[in-house]
Design a protein that fits this description.
mainly alpha, 16 helices
């Protein structure tokens, strides 16, 4: 009976680990691998693991003459929390390295999910404001536009926080965010301030897109988890549709009351100076990472990687290959480098890649498409083309990052083998390097 009890505790631990990973945006293949590795290390050989978008199931046949032990755990909350994700990732490594047994691991797991964040919530709101201000800045807006975008972002965050506490679906949170962003832009357009209020809307669209899980949906599709991929894609489409509904409603309101927010023309931005794009992208990525509770040690590498990705984006775009190839190339570099950087700063690669690609999200194309659709007439076809471009950029970002991760994994293995072969007479430390088990 004690053995059966320990098996129950092990299965429950694996399900709790999988729940945190899945709710934080990890792919179904990664969740399955993590759960299977922990279960195997703790003595469960060949358990059956089923991961879907809303639930986790695990069963184990410990005796052919006894019924299988089966447990199911529902995934109810989906908040981006890279602090908990990193803590669970470290816990999994500790279990696999025999630094924690099932009882210690369960205690640590309970602490991870129950202890609140040390960062004050108002600092998270401020980080969202800094993020949107940086986006407005590298899109060509001045200090006034950046300030308005920052105020709109902080207002959106507080409003969505209140709505989330009342358990409203994400779709309505996105609609509210789009409306608030457009209202701030309309207020700016109604004044005599010489600014482009459309940049305010674009900056806040990037903020609202930051939590949309296109990357997880594509990763699940590439790894064979088609049901989970379809569910993630549906969630992403609903979230994007909420943004579209909110912004388009605000634009229609502005048109009805005679306030023109303006429209960003293709190619119009403040990217004439590369340093503006590079610095703005670095600040944007670091601010998003902070707002998502990433460990402080990862902020500087995230900023540096985002700056490098922005530079690659600019170079490819100037070569005339188009935004989609530019976004895909930058995402590939981010995915490739992040795999090595993540090991240095002791965070999962997901924390770095998602944060670093945020400045490249297609907020500009989505806003331009919405404004053209709101005008109607002959502009509808141009609006649809802009929306298709936005979808292409989003897919390029996700596929580029995942391809970079696929290429990085064998490169890292070969680099470790080369380091082992070239390890000469060391003055301190072990003679030869030892990889993780």
């Amino acid at each position: 009976m004690s053995d059966v009890k320990e098996l129950n505790l092990t299965i429950d631990l694996c399900l709790r680990i999988g729940e945190v990973l899945l709710s934080s945006g990890a792919g179904a293949a990664d969740v399955t691998a993590a759960m299977g590795s922990v279960a195997h290390h703790l003595g469960l050989r060949n358990p059956e693991i089923d991961v879907t978008f809303t639930s986790l199931a695990m069963s184990y046949q410990y005796d052919e003459e006894e019924p299988a032990l089966s447990m199911i755990r529902n995934v109810k909350h989906r908040d981006i929390d890279y602090r908990d994700l990193t803590a669970v990732d470290h816990l999994v490594r500790d279990v696999l390295d025999d630094r924690a047994d099932v009882y210690l691991a369960r205690t640590r797991m309970a602490t991870i999910v129950s202890v609140g964040h040390p960062t004050p919530r108002w600092l998270i709101t401020l980080a969202w404001g800094v993020m949107c201000a940086s986006v407005a800045f590298f899109l060509g807006g001045g200090l006034v536009v950046a300030g308005i975008a920052s105020l709109a972002a902080m207002s959106i965050d507080r409003l969505q926080l209140v709505m989330a506490r009342r358990r409203l679906p994400t779709f309505y949170l996105q609609v509210a965010g789009g409306v608030v962003a457009t209202l701030f832009a309309l207020a700016a357009a109604a004044t005599e301030i010489d600014v482009d209020p459309s940049l305010v809307v674009t900056a806040n669209i990037v903020m609202l897109l930051a939590g949309v899980g296109f990357m997880g949906a594509l990763q699940d599709a590439l790894t064979g988890f088609y049901v989970t991929s379809a569910a993630r894609l549906m969630e992403a489409l609903l979230a994007t549709a909420g943004i579209i509904a909110g912004v388009s409603g605000g634009l229609s309101l502005g048109k009805a009351i005679g306030v023109d927010v303006g429209r960003l023309e293709p190619g119009y931005s403040g990217w004439e100076a590369t340093w503006v794009l590079v610095v703005g992208s670095a600040v944007c990525a670091a601010a998003f990472a902070f707002a998502s509770y990433s460990p402080m040690r990862a902020l500087l590498p995230i900023a540096a990687l985002a700056a490098g990705g922005a530079g690659v984006y600019r170079l490819v775009d100037e070569a005339g290959l188009g935004r989609t190839w530019a976004a895909g190339s930058a995402a590939f570099v981010i995915g490739l480098v992040s795999y090595f950087v993540a090991g240095r700063v002791r965070v999962p690669p997901l924390v770095i890649v998602v944060s670093a690609v945020v400045p490249l999200l297609p907020g500009l194309s989505i806003y331009r498409g919405l404004s053209l659709l709101a005008e109607g007439g002959g502009r509808v076809s141009l609006g649809l083309l802009a929306m298709v471009t936005a979808a292409g950029v989003a897919i390029a970002l996700a596929s580029g990052v995942i391809l970079g991760e696929y290429v990085a994994q064998p490169l890292r293995r070969e680099a470790r083998r080369l380091e082992d072969r070239l390890a000469g007479p060391r003055l301190v430390g072990p003679l030869r390097t030892r990889g993780r088990r």
